[in-house]
Specification:
By secondary structure, the chain is α+β, with helices and mostly antiparallel strands. It has four helices and twelve strands, in the order E-H-E-E-H-E-E-E-E-E-E-E-E-H-E-H. It has one domain. Helices cover about 15% and strands about 35% of the residues. Belongs to the phospholipid scramblase family.
Length: about 220
């Protein structure tokens, strides 16, 4: 444990991570897009980390689902332990050479790994990479991510894409909550013995999936 990045020791014993987006009153009343804030909890609902998105109003308003951002994740003592960096890139199968890529640092300034979107004409696919950009895991989502009245699962698989070892789930939390707050609740399930750096990268993958597939999920209502 003494070799783990500072602040990630707690992830060493977790196989389930809950991410809850906090409701912003201004966003509810005026419909104004504000910087996202999240609580990251264990399976008992106890807060482990707190995350805040940093970017400009221009990015949130005009580039919403593909916007660049930096998410700073701090422990309960206020110490930043994880930093998630997303540059502005494309989100379309029409541009397979410039798809999404996200960098996760832990501690800030030290690469923990990457989340790389893979081109596929039908399914959302991502590769989890370590700090050396070596492939570690795959994430494969469903054809439809609307999730009406049910959870939406993105399966975490081995590199052969045959063995499922976990999942990232978008929890359906009810019509009233979804329509009037548009907040997100996610769960990450991974093996307890997974490298804590890769667990930190999985948290970054969860943020990326939220913005890519669920940020504007209510526009058609």
């Amino acid at each position: 444990t003494h070799t783990l990045p500072p602040g990630l020791e707690y992830l060493n014993q977790l196989d389930q991570i809950i991410i809850h987006q906090q409701v912003e009153l201004l966003e509810v009343i005026l419909g104004t897009e504000t910087s996202s804030k999240y609580e990251i909890k264990n399976h008992l609902g106890q807060r482990v980390y707190f995350a805040v998105e940093e970017n400009g109003c221009f990015d949130r308003k005009l580039c919403s689902p593909i916007r660049s951002f930096t998410i700073r994740i701090a422990d309960n003592a206020g110490r930043e332990v994880i930093r998630v960096i997303r540059p502005l890139r494309c989100n379309s199968c029409c541009f397979p050479c410039f798809l999404q890529e996200l960098e996760v640092q832990s501690p800030p300034g030290t690469i923990a790994g990457y989340v790389v979107q893979n081109w596929d004409p039908f399914l959302p696919k991502f590769t989890i990479q370590n700090e050396s950009k070596e492939d570690v895991l795959k994430i494969i989502g469903p054809c439809a991510t609307c999730g009406c009245f049910e959870d939406v699962d993105f399966e975490v698989k081995a590199l052969n894409e045959m063995t499922t070892i976990g999942k990232i789930s978008k929890y359906w939390s009810g019509f009233v909550n979804n329509v009037f707050t548009n907040t997100a609740n996610f769960g990450i399930q991974v093996p307890v013995d997974l490298d804590v750096r890769i667990k930190a990268v999985m948290i970054g993958a969860c943020f990326l999936i939220d913005l890519m597939f669920f940020e504007n999920s209510l526009d058609g209502l």
